[in-house]
Amino acid sequence: MVQLTITRKQRIKMFVYEYYLGVSKWLGLVRFIGGPVYFVIGLKIYDFATDRLEIAFGGFLVVLSVYYFFKPVWWVVVFWKNFKTIDFQLELGENQLMIEEDGAFTKIDYGKFDKICRRPEYFVLSLGKRSKVYLPVKSLSDQAIETLQAKCV
């Protein structure tokens, strides 16, 4: 078993990367560029508005753009406790991986993962839409990296 530590800084970095680039290219583009574009469109509508409905719509677009652009920052601030540093032990086998954290063991077959992806600094093992395991590449052995790379979909 290999001892791994994922720091708060690494977890926040992973979250922001997954928010903007870990999804489909179109959704990532909308999230990254959509905020500023909505802001400009909302200001233009607000400037040229002639009645209350147009003013309200322009204001709505400005508020929506601020929400989209700063959502990852707000999530990190609001859910600060969820981004704590975690220590766990990992063992990668041929057919499953085993994680031990605080004395609790979890064994997961590779076939149960919906998707295994390699990002520049970590691997993402998806067990569904909301359940994911993140493994930093720099903490893994060459053999573990090869095992996960072979399982990438």
Please characterize this protein's 3D structure.
It is a single chain. By secondary structure, the chain is of the alpha+beta class. Helix content is 48%, strand content 25%. It is built from 4 helices and 7 strands; from the N terminus they run βαααββββββα. It has helices spanning 8-20, 25-47, 52-78, 142-151; strands spanning 2-6, 86-92, 96-101, 104-109, 115-118, 122-126, 132-136. Strands 1-2-3-4 form a 4-stranded antiparallel β-sheet. The chain has a 3-stranded antiparallel β-sheet with strand order 5-6-7, covered by helices on one side. A hairpin with a 3-residue loop joins strand 5 (115-118) and strand 6 (122-126). Helix 2 (25-47) packs across helix 3 (52-78). The chain is elongated. The mean pLDDT is 88.
